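Bench log, entry 3. Co-assembly request; chain sequences pasted below exactly as received.
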Amino acid sequence: MSAFSKGAPMDDLDRELLNRVQSDFPIASRPYAAIAGDLGITEAQVIQRLKALKARGIIRRIGGNFVPHKLGFVSTLCAAKVPEEKLESFAETVNRYPGVTHNYTRDNPFNVWFTFIAPSMEEIDANLEAISRETGVREILNLPATKVFKIRAHFDL
Amino acid sequence: MLTELEQKVVASLQGDIPISERPFLEIARKLEIEEETLLNILKDLRDRGIIRRFGATLRHQKSGFRANAMVAWQVDEKRIEKAGRTMASFSEVTHCYRRDPNPLWPFNLYTMIHARDEATCRAIARRLSLESGVDIYQLLFSRHELKKTSMQYFPEADTD
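Structure output for the full assembly:
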């Protein structure tokens, strides 16, 4: 089944390549050559295919994903109950903070859910109060994780 | 904590590395260090667990996982450990966390489910409920993406 709105569907080699670069990207001088060797194609083919997958928007980025608390940061999930007519301005206010990395509307009375990363929880609490003052939205939950059972960002294709 | 050079390396790798023959050489040149030094720091950050994952991040909507649901569960604290582990064992569950309940929001266990469509997400939630024995839950489907980006740590250390 093709899930693409445009371009040719992915072939098996694209899928194999995506599975590999998601979870086992070589930290080596010529990483794409290392992948090419494993898949039995050329370095130029790997580069060309990855560039095409990037251009089609299937790959968002290639880089590092860090554990916030090991860099001296804290992270949390926040939820807000925002009246329909305030949604746009609320999103604008919240999204201004660089520490807000993900923000979605969801179909629930708590209809705006965003993640917040900052050097301390005090800073996050202060920011949430400032957001509340600026937008008039009173109900904003701060729900930091107390235990992680699973984080997986790999999608088997 | 991190040295100044390590912070610069983190800042240089939280964006998008080039898809070219020598991506790390290009980054090392910007940092004015040797490629080998960069690779060693990168491996060390990975081994210390500071880098959770290095590699490609996909737009999962475009790779066939078009629906995502957050499921908030209300679990007896005595059973939460077992329920969390059971739910985390499902391949369709990408994230599973315990969070403190709130007077306005009594849920304390959270799972993210990615699947082809909403009906499949609902079916997976029912299976999670059956397997874990937790039957108070809410599915929250995402409607609009208002923001999705990667955290920019140490922006002052970024050489770009």
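Helices of chain B lie at 4-13, 23-31, 35-47, 80-88, 118-132. Chain B has a mean pLDDT of 93.
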